[in-house]
Amino acid sequence: MNRHSLTLVIWIILMVTWSFQQMHAAVILHNGTLKGVVLDARTGTGLTGALVVLSPGEQSTYTDELGMFTFQDLVAGNYTLEVRYLGFDTERIQVSVRDHETTAVKIALTPGGIKLDEIEIRGMGSENIDKISALDIHTRPLNTSQDILRIVPGLFTAQHAGGGKAEQIFLRGFDIDHGTDLRIAVDGIPVNMVSHAHGQGYSDLHWLIPELVSRVDFAKGPYDARAGNLATAGNVNFHTPVALGRSMLKLEAGQFDTWRALAAFDLTGAQDHTSRRPKAWVASEYHFSQGFFESPQNFTRFNFMGRYTTFMGEDQSLSLFFSTFRSRWDASGQIPQRAVARGLISRFGAIDDTEGGETGRTNISLAFSKNLDAATLLKSRLYLVRYDFELYSNFTFFLRDSINGDQIRQRENRTLIGYEGSWHREQRLGNLSLETEAGLQIRYDDIQDLELSHTAHRRQTLESRALGDVAEANVGCYLDQRVRFSPRLSLDAGLRYDQLYFSYEDHLAPVFVRQTVSRGVFSPKFSLFFDATPRVRLFAHAGVGFHSNDTRVVVARNGEQVLPKARGQEAGILWKAFPSLLINLTLWRLDLDQEFVYVGDEAIVEAGGRTRRQGLEGSLRWQIAPWLFADTDLNYTLARARDEAEGYNYIPLAPGFTSSGGLTVKQSEGFFGSLRYRFMADRPANEDYSVTAEGYFIVDALAGWRNDHIEGTLTVQNLLNTPYNEAQFETTSRLQNEPAPVTELHFTPGSPFFLKGSLTFFF
């Protein structure tokens, strides 16, 4: 089936189910309705994604963002409601439903231990509350911003510029660079920066405080209609809590002159937490480290975050989120192997230690959610982002300028404004459960003084190589129809359309010229879920996604191949082999179109050919004892360029085999700990695999003790003190006084044994 046929089939499904909904709307009025809200007993906030099972009849649903749920078209009588949510005690209540009436219930869940045997494989098949992610966020300690991203199974990160630069990301055979093929958001606010000074989709997540992450939603592949630009390998949305429940002060100290202080305050005060009173919190973080390099990093970071939420009755909320962040650092950069081999520098030395940068970001968003009726949820979000970035790098040393060196500066100032709105409705049509969602997303980036310059020692500007202003707009809309044909079989069909507008004004051109291009793209999505048994779910996905190219590519190519598509298919199984053992296996393939890439370090456009990535993934989560958890993720990928000859078709830095996992001891009080590993196999650093990016195996450890009022921890990164290269690239460079350039592996060393401790007070 070609993409046009698939789009037509999905569109017919959407229209037919919509028509059935309208025809059936009046039929169900004579039966009863059960409407309820599920709350966290500690904070009084709604629990999103709680499983609610209604008996008899074995109907089930998940709570929405307000913690609300609805069962319609119920025959009058007595029912039992069972509510389950990971990390909370299961609650069962008896309810009565009458004809022509709506019965309202409020259920407050009490925090309890993690019980993997209570996780059920049921419900609407397209529900995006990922069970593995929900388990990981409860059992794994989050200590750094990199830990936040690594919650996604199979995702690896690497830092190669002094700690302040955004991490390099690897997922599903992609060297995603800093976010080109992974859409990242926090509470719906986009993290990725399009047409960025350093690289397309650049995603700096350092402004998010790890302790303030309450939930992580992720989906791999281009199958989510809600996710548009950059969501090819997948998309991730991090959530902050509506309320904290208690305040905390945390102090950290570690080797290499590393210090961190965190304060988070619940401003709500003592109250009846089951009530829907306003909730508010603020948090601030300060971090400093000299790093493990011979040249001090002088890495400083300051974060401030806050959120205020008010409820207008049980069925609507208004939330204001604010954050601001500032970071600056010095860096030793990537170094060539030959310099270390000759003894010119050590593994932790530098060729140009005047690299580094400074960046800042301020976010403000206003979100409104309202249940229009028992089955319809309306959500809207407005956001504004102010962002600045300045980075100094030197990858080639003295290749182009044998006197001053090849240092470059990349800089920009950006204002980002956007809107996201969605309409979501649930209802029944006979034995069918239907969910319809329609959404509109608008994003506008205004980028001033987007610059690439040749500099010396971060003091002198020698040449401006690129300088201009970018305006980029993206308007996307989608319609997603989910149909549950039976308690076992469900389907999700979606269709998305994006229109993008690109504008570039080149400040280095002799006369004023504003170049503009506009293009649109359709993205159909299709998913099928079959629960073969209460413990086995089979699933299949097919869909199209895309990532936009840098505006400077778009106008340079006159709009040619500006929205390269990604076409994906996958199938898999989610299996509870035992009540305490959850296994996920997925076989997948993703094809990317030919594209042209703007190289921000060179101010040039390069062709990127068609690629194919296919692989097998496995994830295991096992609760060995009530207090002991084991997990592992295994990922094998074959990544190749489709238009190159065999042996010359490797995709540089594409991971072939990766694995991560560990053991975690978790108790409500007393001792807790974690022992985790990361493994990445050797992989090609260039197209013919004549240069190898070396693999590594790293072990990290954490041990601590807690009670209701205090928590102490000791953390060790690289417990075995393994020498390894965190970031690696094939680069042509020349050292000062070298007669000719050399092409070889350049790398940034990974952290040696790094011990730090923390003390946290709760009140």
Strand content: over 45%
Q: Please give the number of β-strands.
A: 43
Count of discrete alpha- or pi-helical segments spanning 4 or more residues? 5
Give start-end ranges of low-pLDDT stretches.
Answer: 23-28, 124-129
Indicate the radius of gyration in whole angstroms: 26 Å
Mean pLDDT across all residues, rounded?
Answer: 89
CATH topology name of the largest domain: Maltoporin, Chain A
At CATH level 2, the architecture of the largest domain is Beta Barrel
Give the name of the CATH superfamily of the largest domain: TonB-dependent receptor, beta-barrel domain
Which structural class do the helices and strands define? Answer: mainly beta
Question: Could you explain how this protein is built, in words?
Answer:
The protein is mainly β and 763 residues long. It has 2 domains: 82 residues, Sandwich (Immunoglobulin-like), CATH 2.60.40; 632 residues, Beta Barrel (Maltoporin, Chain A), CATH 2.40.170.20. The chain is built from 5 helices and 43 strands. It has a 22-stranded antiparallel β-barrel. A 4-stranded antiparallel beta sheet has the order 3-2-5-6, with no helix packed on it. A hairpin with an 8-residue loop joins strand 41 and strand 42. The chain starts with a helix and ends with a strand. About 2% of the residues have low confidence.
List the helices and strands and how they pair.
Elements: H1 3-24, E1 32-40, E2 51-55, E3 59-62, E4 68-74, E5 77-84, E6 91-97, E7 102-109, H2 131-139, H3 145-149, E8 156-158, E9 168-171, E10 174-177, E11 182-186, E12 189-190, E13 215-220, E14 234-239, E15 248-254, E16 258-266, E17 279-289, E18 299-311, E19 316-331, E20 335-336, H4 337-341, E21 355-373, E22 376-393, E23 408-429, E24 432-456, E25 460-484, E26 489-506, E27 514-533, E28 536-546, H5 551-556, E29 565-578, E30 581-592, E31 595-599, E32 604-608, E33 611-625, E34 628-641, E35 657-665, E36 670-680, E37 683-684, E38 692-693, E39 696-706, E40 710-717, E41 725-733, E42 742-749, E43 754-762
Parallel strand pairs: 1-7, 11-14
Antiparallel strand pairs: 1-4, 2-3, 2-5, 5-6, 8-9, 9-10, 11-12, 13-14, 15-16, 15-43, 16-17, 17-18, 18-19, 19-21, 20-42, 21-22, 22-23, 23-24, 24-25, 25-26, 26-27, 27-28, 28-29, 29-30, 30-33, 31-32, 33-34, 34-35, 35-36, 36-39, 37-38, 39-40, 40-43, 41-42
